[in-house]
Write a structure and sequence with these properties.
- The chain has ten helices and eight strands.
- It is an alpha/beta fold.
- The protein has one domain (about 1-265): Alpha-Beta Barrel (TIM Barrel).
- The two termini are about 30 Å apart.
- It comes from Alkalicoccobacillus plakortidis.
- Pfam families: DUF72 (PF01904).
- This is DUF72 domain-containing protein.
């Protein structure tokens, strides 16, 4: 099965004309069967909040929960937690209300997290702490997929039981990775489409990177390329989860809908959609 969705549900204005903030998630769930929850990256979410989001979505809906940033080395230390044990415990507790709606936890490591022994050990530690959950691994440093390390990295992911987060992103130096179409898990593969904005990828001036990094709209030729890629991946892995993250300019929702149409998918079990006056 191929599941298609977006990063977050709050920023996709084309879905929400006249919709209040409190209704955005249930409205989103009328369009897509999955969402990547990125607020969990910035702060471990309260269990009551996760329970509310689970209750607002249909039974068939799934969340891809992004790991807290201190777990993946984006920030030093353990945030508001006393130590790493308390941090992981709080994060794991936050997942419980999702139950079967948890598709996977996404562990995305930062551009400076390169391929060396101590980092391999930390990746292994994170996987151990999240034992029992489906967990996806995404690197942002090219060293993991260099010519000499690519096969060893993929073999490591397979041995450790990681879901491969396959990326489409600009090839803009060491802080980006190539597209490696290789599932490492028998039942789940994640595909994240970040756009191909080479000039915006490394533009961190004035703290406005989010406004420019994912400023990109996939054209029909590029979507057709990924339609082919996803169908090939589906031959090797039971479930493919595709997330459009190209939303700096609000393009993700439109591209995702184009992609669903190109694949001829008709999802069942979505939330009821509020009909336009003239529909």
């Amino acid at each position: 099965m191929i599941y298609i969705g977006l990063t977050g549900w709050g920023d996709h204005d084309s879905l929400y004309e006249g919709i209040p903030l409190s209704q955005k998630l249930i409205t989103y769930a009328g369009h897509f069967p999955i969402v990547e929850l990125d607020s969990s990256f910035y702060a471990v979410q309260p269990e009551k909040t996760m329970a509310k989001w689970a209750a607002e979505t249909p039974d068939s809906f799934s969340f891809i929960v992004k790991a807290y940033q201190c777990m993946t080395g984006h920030q030093n230390g353990f945030g508001p937690f006393e130590d790493k044990e308390a941090m992981f415990t709080a994060f794991i507790d936050s997942l419980q209300p999702l139950g079967s709606k948890l598709a996977m936890v996404l562990c995305q490591f930062p551009p400076w997290f390169d391929c060396r022994k101590e980092n391999v050990q930390w990746v292994r530690y994170v996987k151990e702490k999240l034992s029992g959950f489906p967990v996806a691994l995404e690197f942002r440093n090219q060293s993991w997929f260099s010519e000499s390390m690519r096969e060893r990295t993929l073999a490591f992911m397979e041995e450790e039981g990681w879901i491969h987060s396959i990326c489409d992103e600009p090839q803009a130096g060491n802080g980006s990775i190539p597209t490696v179409l290789h599932p490492t898990h028998s039942t789940k593969t994640l595909v994240r489409l970040h756009g191909r904005n080479v000039y915006g990828w490394n533009d961190t001036k004035d703290g406005k990177w989010r406004e420019v990094r994912y400023l990109y709209r996939y054209n029909e030729t590029e979507l057709e390329e990924w339609r082919h890629n996803v169908l090939e991946l589906e031959k090797k892995c039971k479930n493919i989860y595709v997330i459009f993250n190209n939303n700096s300019g609000g393009d993700a929702a439109d591209n995702a809908k184009q992609f669903i149409e190109a694949l001829g998918i008709k999802y069942e079990g979505l939330a009821p959609r509020q009909l336009d006056l003239f529909e």
